[in-house]
Each structure stands twice: as structure tokens, then as C-alpha cells.
Write a structure and sequence with these properties.
By secondary structure, the chain is of the alpha/beta class. The protein has five domains: 188 residues, Rossmann fold; 81 residues, no CATH class; 151 residues, P-loop containing nucleotide triphosphate hydrolases (Rossmann fold, 3-Layer(aba) Sandwich); 139 residues, PCRA, domain 4 (Orthogonal Bundle); 52 residues, Beta Barrel (Thrombin, subunit H), CATH 2.40.10. The protein has 31 helices and 23 strands. Helix 4 links the parallel strand 2 and strand 3. Helix 18 packs across helix 22. The termini are far apart. The relative contact order is 0.10. The structure holds adenosine-5'-triphosphate and magnesium ion. The site of magnesium ion has 4 residues, from helix 3. The site of adenosine-5'-triphosphate has 20 residues, from helix 3.
């Protein structure tokens, strides 16, 4: 006779997962409102998935009566996959984003009311794209061109107001650096309503309109309320007010709502997320059960201890005490490199040695960090997956400018190419002069034409003559050298500075692009190769999106890494100015959010976590992130007390070793440590570097080979240049 096993016993046998007491309670408590407030890695998502399985298998609920709502499409997919792994024999459940639910509602409503509409985000027509509309409005209202940064900020401003459902009269109180933002926003709304024959909709509109529809159309409200018997939301700390409002209406009758959240992982408040809503959960749902989970199943002792202590720096939070029964693995590693450039090399060398790649992630705050990673990993032949690949770098006008300058070295007879850079080269040719130049069609050098046929100011003559000559001299130059000449001798960087003053561009960002281009150009011989390399990288970036689930290293922003886990996590660019950013420093709520972001990154790691910082970037000194210093204080409390200065200095390995005296002759630059070099080690004496692999330096001595930590050698000044053999 077949005896049907208990659901939980069965799952234990099939999956090896034994739910703990609270998890069990959360799964069994299927009726009524439930808030599950828990630490990272405590099994929130796992519990949610089990609960869905339980509803279907044990309670006989039809899968299509269950709605699981996630914050992003990526996490919807992640949940779908996990569900399939847990319950391969069950039909699929509806995991989707709140946006897709809202859109469905909006579509239904507009069909009923015969309203014609058009989407202006996602796969929208460029002509009617949200960003195009905002660009145009900005131009017409301020008379200036909007910068990419300002556009991003404007989009965030609008999203924020809509998601928080802030009424018009309170808009002036919403802070933004974008001039005339409020006026632009009002005209934007007006344009969407009446600017064309159709109603235009952006993603935020779907939410606000869906919410309005549920408020006004009792028929549709009822229809949707009757459609699902159970609603579950993951990562609810990132749910916004208007999203909460929609969900509230949806579950109003049966109140079978399960909300899973961690306030310490709230990282979208800039976009209107409302974690404080969870504090009032009992007020909204007086019958609610609230459960807490603090046991982490994901990470090692060391990682859990460090992360738990770290997040206590924040004042605005539920105090929790995350703990784990997982075994100890290894200390959290703090890697400090002499220069930013070494970072990607270090990563490629270290990770390149791994047997498989899918257990490893490199996490960063800004998408811009990914360009050099892509370059280096592509060169090293290490496959990688990028979730939110961002093509903006390659299409950025600074990149296009460099290519146009390079084209000018082949021919200076093309006014169309010159037009792209005419105001960014020494001798600054004005728009008017450019118009005159374009009318001359004799296929001669643009410089000759300018000098002969276009009225110029006296001071323009010399620099334009020189520019012509310089460009000629540049023919055949290696691209790195060419970029340097463009930046310096041809006056591009000076022009950028002026533009920054005039248009409010962020100078560090633009200079960063130039420096990145130099890195890409570094090993290339010709400008053609450089142009081809950029094209290639752009293509690689595109295909990197499709490498999910393959044997590939994951590159991700901290934001997009939420909910995921990896055996090995490398958090990079951990310096002041990036995390926390300059803006974060002046504002405590922003600072706390920045710390939460850091915390999300740390808690992705199961066993191996490295925090990477550096001393210098683009020739300028950088300071180690205060968050790294905080972690350092947590893992080496004694060391901290003894040190006179709180500064983290080249942290790394061998923390127990006595401090070695300062050696002025020591090799300090990591780039000097190449295979083949003869060095003198303070203890081991003379030897030859045979291999550099990640942090491991292999030195062949007279009678044996030693493996040393590269960072320690640099940090302690253990190696000197020993000249030739
Ligand atoms: P995050 O806050 O990062 O989203 P989470 O709370 O959703 O984390 P999960 O991703 O569900 O956590 O679980 C983290 C890890 O712990 C997963 O690998 C999961 O399989 C494992 N896990 C969860 N609960 C248990 C348990 N009771 N026994 C063993 N492993 C568990
Ligand atoms: Mg989760």
C-alpha cells in the first residue's frame, strides 16, 4: 500500500531542505495576512516557494489562483526557476512583476473604454520615447540641452513622485538638481494626455492608472479580487506606495497576503520604495501574523558575523541579530591594491584559475565599472554573464569623439567628421564658421579651407595650423599614444572642462571614460585595431546577456544582485566617492541606503568574500571606503586599537605578522612584478619571479620555489628590484 508521506518529510527527502520552526509556521499559515521579516539568506524566498508548493499540493489550490509578485523581471525569473527546481512536476505558477500585473489591468480597462494608447518605454518608438519627450521639453523650457546625468535624475524625480503618490501641491518640496523639473514634469503629463492623438503611457503610469482603475471601476476591481485566492510578494522592502495600494485592493476581500521583506536590504528608496509601510503592517491588517527569521543558511560564520555587525551602524532599522549554524570557512578578505588599474588584472588572474565560473560574482555599484572588466575578461578568455548590461559607454559621445579624431588622422578632408569635433579641438571653430566651411566643396583639407576661405579670429590661426600638423603626425600612431595627444596637445580635455562648466556635465565621469579608453587601447598597435576592439566589446556585451546559467562569471551591480547567492563574491571599487558616493556623504538617509547596498553585496557570498579597494585612480589618490574600514574594525578589533591612525593601510594577509620596518627601496608598483623579473626578498634573498597568479607570487629561489602573497609583499615592502641575473 502506498502511504502518502507528509509534505515536509517528502521535501526533505527530495531536496534535502528541512525547514526550521518559523519557516514551517510561515508555510502552514496560509490564511490571512502574514508578514515575514527576515535577514538575508534566512530562507525568505525559499519559504515563499515552499508555501506555494504547499498551497497546491496540500491545500489543493489551483496554481492559477496564486499570484506571486516580484519587484523585477529578473527576480520573477529567478523565482520561476527555483519553483521548477523544487516542484518539477507541478504546472507553472504566475510569477510576475507588479508592472506586468498593472499593465494587464490597464489594457483590459482601455479595451473596455475604447481608449487608444501607446507605450513610451521599453520597446517604444524613438520618436515617442519617454526620454526623447523629456529631452525635448527640457530644451524648450530651459533653452539648453539636457545632459545624460540630468535626464537620469529627471526620470528618477518623476518616478519618485508617482511611486510615492505625492499630490501636485507637494511637488515643490521634492528635492532635485534638475532646473525647472517641476514645470517639465507638468508639461510632460500634459503632453502624454493631449500632445498626440493617443494617450501616452510610461511604466510608472501603469501603476498609477491601475491603482485609479481599481479605485473607480468596481466591476474590474471585483473581477481581479476574485481572480486570485493567494497573493505573495517577495523583496517587499522595495515595494512603493502605489504598488502597496494596488496589492491592498487586490487582497481586500480574502486578505490572504504573504509579504516577505528585509528592511536592511531596502535599496530603492531613491525610486520611491516605502519600507516604512511594513512598520504599519499591523495597522493595515490588524489580524496579521508577523514572523521574524534571523538564522542565515547561506553564508559562513565569518561572513554572517561581519555583515551582521556592519549593518548595526544604521540607526533606522529593526534591530535583528543574524546568526548562522553554518561552519566557519575563511576570513573575509580585504584586498588593497596600489592602483585601480591592477584591479581587473587581479580579478582575471585569480578567477581565471577557477575550475568553474558560475559560482563566482563580481559586484560593483556603478555600471561603468563593467567596461574594463569586460575588456580584461574577454582578453583572458574567461566567459562572463551580465544581467543588466548597459550599452551606454560605447555610444557615449566622448567615445565617438575619440573615434572621430582618429578618423581625422586618416583624412582631414571630411567636413562632416570635423563637424563632430569642431568645438572640441584647439582653435575652437564656431558654429557659424562651421556653416561656412560646410558650403565649400573642393575636397581639400578642412584646415586649409578654414585658413584660406573662412573668416577666423586671429587667435584661431596658429592652433588650427598646429592641429593640422599634429593630426598628420599622428598617422600610424598606436592608439594609446593617439588618445593622449588628443587629450593634451589637441586640446580635447581643455574643451571638456569648458563644457563641464557650461553644461554641468560631471567632469570625473567624462575623464573616467577617457581613462577607460586608454586602458582598452593599452596593448593595441593601431587605431584600426582600437576601433575594431570597441566594436568587438560592444558585441561581447550584448552576448554576455545570454550567458545566464552557463559556465560564466556573473558581473552585476549591487542592486541587481539582490536575492542571488554565489560561492565567491568580489566586491570592487570600494573607495570613497563611489560607495559612499559624494552625495551620500552629505545626507544620513542616503548614507544608510549606501550602507544597505554594501550589506546586500556582502550577504550574497556563501564562503569567499573579498572587498577590494585601491590607493590611486587615474593618478589621483583615493581613500578606502569607510564601509571597508568598518568591516576591518569588525574583523580585526585589536589591530585597530593599536594603530594610531584609523586609516586602513594595505590590508590583506598575514594579519598576525609583526610590522616590518619601512623600506624605501621596496617595489611598490604592482606592475613591476612580472614573470621573469629578478627580485630580492627580505627573508628569502634573491630569486626570479616565475608566475604571478592572482594574489600568488611564485618566486624561484636557488634551491626551491616559494609561493607568496603578492599583496603582502607589496604591503610590507618585502621585495626589491635585484637588477639583471
Ligand atoms: P535574500 O534576503 O538574500 O533574498 P532569502 O532570505 O530569500 O535571502 P533564500 O535565498 O531563500 O534566502 O535562502 C538562502 C539559502 O539558504 C539558499 O541556498 C537556501 O537553499 C538555503 N536555505 C534556506 N532555508 C534553509 C533551511 N531550512 N535549511 C537549509 N538550507 C536552507
Ligand atoms: Mg530572497
Amino acid at each position: 500500500m502506498h502511504i502518502r508521506q507528509d509534505f515536509f518529510t517528502r521535501k526533505k527527502e527530495e531536496l534535502g531542505v528541512t525547514l526550521n520552526k518559523v519557516q514551517l509556521q510561515a508555510v502552514r499559515q496560509t490564511e490571512g495576512p502574514l508578514l515575514l521579516l527576515a535577514s538575508p539568506g534566512s530562507g525568505k524566498t525559499t519559504t515563499l516557494i515552499m508555501r506555494i508548493g504547499y498551497l497546491i499540493e496540500e491545500k489543493g489550490t489551483a496554481p492559477n489562483r496564486i499570484k506571486a509578485i516580484t519587484f523585477s523581471r529578473a527576480s520573477a525569473n529567478d523565482m520561476k526557476e527555483r519553483f521548477k527546481r523544487f516542484f518539477p512536476y507541478l504546472p507553472p505558477v504566475d510569477f510576475s512583476t507588479i508592472h506586468s500585473l498593472a499593465f494587464e489591468l490597464v489594457r483590459t480597462y482601455f479595451r473596455q473604454t475604447h481608449t487608444s494608447y501607446r507605450l513610451i518605454e521599453g520597446h517604444a518608438d524613438m520618436q515617442f520615447h519617454k526620454k526623447t519627450i523629456l529631452r525635448n521639453l527640457y530644451k524648450s523650457i530651459t533653452g539648453e540641452k539636457i545632459t545624460d546625468d540630468q535626464l537620469e535624475e529627471l526620470v528618477t524625480y518623476i518616478s519618485y513622485i508617482k511611486n510615492k503618490m505625492i499630490p501636485v501641491e507637494k511637488w515643490p518640496a521634492v528635492a532635485t538638481d534638475v532646473p525647472k523639473a517641476e514645470q517639465i514634469f507638468k508639461q510632460y503629463e500634459e503632453f502624454k494626455q493631449n500632445g498626440t492623438g493617443q494617450l501616452l503611457l510610461d511604466f510608472d503610469d501603469m501603476l498609477t492608472i491601475a491603482n485609479d482603475i481599481l479605485e473607480k471601476d468596481s466591476g474590474l476591481l471585483l473581477q481581479y479580487q476574485q481572480r486570485y485566492d493567494y497573493v505573495l510578494t517577495d523583496e517587499s522592502q522595495d515595494t512603493s506606495m502605489v504598488q502597496h495600494a494596488i496589492i491592498e485592493k487586490l487582497v481586500h476581500v480574502h486578505q490572504n497576503l504573504c509579504v516577505v521583506a528585509d528592511d536592511d536590504q531596502s535599496i530603492y528608496s531613491w525610486r520611491g520604495a516605502e519600507p516604512a509601510y511594513l512598520l504599519d503592517f499591523k495597522k493595515k491588517y490588524p489580524d496579521a501574523h508577523i514572523l521574524f527569521m534571523e538564522q542565515n543558511y547561506r553564508s559562513s560564520q565569518e561572513i554572517v558575523a561581519a555583515a551582521n555587525q556592519f549593518i548595526k551602524r544604521n540607526k533606522h532599522r529593526y534591530d535583528k541579530n543574524m546568526f548562522t549554524e553554518n561552519p566557519a570557512a575563511e576570513p573575509v578578505k580585504l584586498i588593497h591594491l596600489p592602483d585601480y588599474q591592477y584591479q581587473v588584472k587581479y580579478l582575471a588572474q585569480t578567477i581565471g584559475e577557477f575550475e568553474n565560473y558560475q559560482d563566482t560574482a563580481i559586484l560593483y555599484r556603478n555600471n561603468a565599472s563593467s567596461v574594463l572588466l569586460i575588456n580584461e575578461f574577454d582578453r583572458a578568455g574567461i566567459p562572463f554573464y551580465i544581467k543588466d548590461a548597459d550599452n551606454r559607454f560605447f555610444s557615449h559621445w566622448v567615445v565617438q569623439d575619440m573615434l572621430n579624431f582618429m578618423r581625422m588622422t586618416y583624412t582631414d578632408k571630411r567636413p562632416d567628421i570635423f563637424e563632430q569635433i569642431h568645438s572640441k579641438i584647439n582653435g575652437y571653430v564656431t558654429k557659424k564658421q562651421m556653416e561656412v566651411l560646410k558650403r565649400i566643396r573642393n575636397n581639400q583639407s578642412v584646415f586649409d579651407n578654414l585658413l584660406k576661405h573662412v573668416p577666423l579670429q586671429d587667435y584661431q590661426i596658429k592652433p588650427l595650423r598646429e592641429a593640422k600638423e599634429t593630426l598628420q603626425q599622428m598617422r600610424g600612431m598606436p592608439p594609446l599614444e593617439a588618445i593622449r595627444v588628443i587629450r593634451g596637445r589637441l586640446g580635447y580635455e581643455k574643451a571638456l572642462e569648458k563644457m563641464c562648466e557650461r553644461f554641468g556635465f560631471r567632469k570625473e565621469y567624462l575623464i573616467g571614460i577617457l581613462n577607460t579608453l586608454e586602458e582598452i587601447a593599452d596593448t593595441l598597435e593601431t587605431m584600426e585595431e582600437f576601433a575594431a576592439r570597441l566594436k568587438h566589446l560592444q558585441h561581447v556585451l550584448k552576448t554576455a546577456k545570454q550567458k545566464k546559467g552557463q559556465n560564466a562569471v556573473t558581473f552585476s551591480t549591487f542592486h541587481s544582485s539582490k536575492g542571488l547567492e554565489f560561492e565567491n563574491v568580489y566586491m570592487i571599487d570600494l573607495v570613497e566617492g563611489i560607495i559612499p558616493s559624494e552625495d551620500d556623504k552629505d545626507d544620513e538617509p542616503l548614507m544608510e541606503e549606501s550602507a544597505r547596498l554594501f550589506y546586500v553585496g556582502m550577504t550574497r557570498a556563501k564562503k569567499h568574500l573579498e572587498l577590494i579597494s585601491y590607493d590611486k585612480r587615474d593618478g589621483k589618490k583615493t581613500a578606502v571606503s569607510r564601509f571597508v574600514k568598518a568591516v576591518k574594525r569588525i574583523i580585526h578589533p585589536d589591530k585597530e586599537k593599536k594603530q594610531s591612525s584609523p586609516e586602513v593601510k594595505r590590508v590583506g594577509h598575514g594579519s598576525g605578522i609583526a610590522k616590518t620596518p619601512y623600506n624605501p627601496n621596496a617595489i611598490q608598483d604592482i606592475s613591476e612584478l612580472l614573470a621573469g623579473k629578478i627580485v630580492k626578498h627580505r627573508v628569502f634573498g634573491k630569486g626570479k619571479i616565475v608566475r604571478v597568479n592572482g594574489d600568488t607570487l611564485e618566486i624561484k629561489l636557488k634551491s626551491r620555489t616559494v609561493k607568496l602573497s603578492l599583496v603582502t609583499c607589496l604591503e610590507r615592502g618585502l621585495l626589491e628590484d635585484a637588477g639583471d641575473e
